[in-house]
């Protein structure tokens, strides 16, 4: 279990904390076949969709296999292909693709993806993928043992998809540009608008809501919107973050924000521990004497009430450093920190949001 804190926030570029409206990626998906596998493909009798796809593909190439029930190849696998279409990607540009087995294939190592159209959310084909796969995982087995490292049924297709359709978006036709904050905050949005106005002069930028800053394109940047965005995205802005503590109980992680403060509160931590230990001893009679060997019980009881743990008072308005120092003064172990923070919140003394993941 670990305890982490935020360092004081420094100024960040607008391009690092916000996105421009219209400059976005698009998700693509497709269904295809991988061939050339070394007996690690789908079992056709189990994966009916693989057999149907194989038959349809062969028919398109002039090979008729309808009615043939003897197809038993294990060198073919049905896969799902996904890719991300970058913003302003032009025809002919190559992008990476991910390939994942859909049936019961054991591995995609050594396989090649056949021509696979990649569709967007509107059902149109935006890219076509084909090529040899790069598999990071592997599987090896013998008669008595087997080993699998990574995921051999997932692969990458580096630069294996070619863009066939562009997403139209004309910057120069815009009369205003909207900037979307990745972490919406009203103070940060207003700071961003003020910085942009200082740079451009006048009052072209305004914060319309905690997550959006709208910029009216000045006359000198008409038909030059890309130049305007290039100048704006480099401007430094200091983000404002809310007071928040995030606790991940599964991983044992506590993250405390810089602006967290607590009211005056007294904290004590300790548990009553009783230890009972048995150390039996063997009692034997004197040499040549009468008697018998017996086991004599010996019991030791120790009580630890942790009386050395003292109650510590945390004064009003203490900062993050004071909170951490106070917990350390109590000798609090990491497993007790979560319970103490929750108790301080329940007492109404924690001036921050508490988020349990």
Automatic annotation (TrEMBL):
Coiled coil regions in record: none
Domain of life of the organism encoding this protein: Bacteria
InterPro entries: Flag_FlgI
Listed GO CC annotations: bacterial-type flagellum basal body, distal rod, P ring; outer membrane-bounded periplasmic space
Subcellular location: Bacterial flagellum basal body
GO molecular function: structural molecule activity
TM spans (from-to): none
Keywords: Bacterial flagellum, Cell projection, Cilium, Flagellum, Periplasm, Signal
Family: Belongs to the FlgI family.
Subunit-structure text: The basal body constitutes a major portion of the flagellar organelle and consists of four rings (L,P,S, and M) mounted on a central rod.
Entry-linked HAMAP family: FlgI
Job of this protein: Assembles around the rod to form the L-ring and probably protects the motor/basal body from shearing forces during rotation.
Protein name, as recorded: Flagellar P-ring protein
Species whose genome carries this gene: Arboricoccus pini
Lineage: Bacteria, Pseudomonadati, Pseudomonadota, Alphaproteobacteria, Geminicoccales
Gene expressing this chain: flgI
């Amino acid at each position: 279990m670990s305890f982490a804190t935020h360092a004081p926030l420094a100024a960040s570029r607008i391009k690092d904390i916000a996105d421009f409206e219209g400059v976005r990626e698009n998700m693509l998906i497709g269904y295809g076949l991988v061939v050339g596998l070394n007996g690690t493909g789908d079992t056709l009798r189990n994966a009916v969709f693989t057999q149907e796809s194989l038959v349809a593909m062969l028919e398109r190439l002039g090979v008729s296999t309808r009615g043939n029930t003897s197809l038993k190849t294990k060198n073919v696998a049905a896969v799902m292909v996904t890719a991300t279409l970058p913003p302003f990607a032009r025809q002919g540009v190559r992008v990476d693709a991910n390939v994942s087995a859909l049936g019961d294939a054991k591995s995609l190592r050594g396989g090649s993806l056949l021509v696979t159209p990649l569709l967007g959310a509107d059902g149109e084909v935006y890219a076509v993928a084909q090529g040899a796969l790069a598999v990071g995982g592997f599987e090896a087995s013998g008669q008595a043992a087997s080993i699998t490292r990574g995921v051999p049924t997932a692969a990458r297709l580096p630069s294996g998809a070619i863009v066939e359709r562009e997403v139209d978006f004309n910057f120069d036709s815009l009369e205003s540009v909207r900037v979307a904050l990745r972490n919406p905050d009203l103070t940060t949005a207003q700071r961003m608008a003020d910085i942009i106005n200082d740079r451009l002069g006048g009052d072209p930028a305004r914060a319309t809501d905690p997550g959006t800053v709208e910029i009216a394109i000045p006359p000198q940047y008409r038909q030059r919107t890309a130049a305007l965005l290039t100048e704006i995205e480099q401007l430094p802005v200091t983000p404002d973050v809310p007071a928040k503590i995030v606790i991940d109980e599964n991983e044992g992680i506590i993250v405390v924000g810089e602006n967290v403060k607590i009211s005056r509160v007294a904290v004590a931590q300790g548990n009553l521990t009783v230890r009972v230990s048995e150390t039996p001893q063997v009692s034997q009679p004197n040499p040549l004497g009468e008697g018998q060997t017996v086991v004599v019980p010996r019991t030791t009881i120790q009580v630890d009430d942790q009386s050395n743990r003292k109650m510590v008072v945390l004064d009003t308005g203490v900062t993050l450093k004071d909170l951490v120092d106070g917990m350390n003064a109590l000798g609090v172990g990491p497993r007790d920190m979560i319970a103490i923070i929750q108790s301080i919140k329940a007492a109404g003394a924690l001036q921050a949001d508490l988020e349990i993941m």
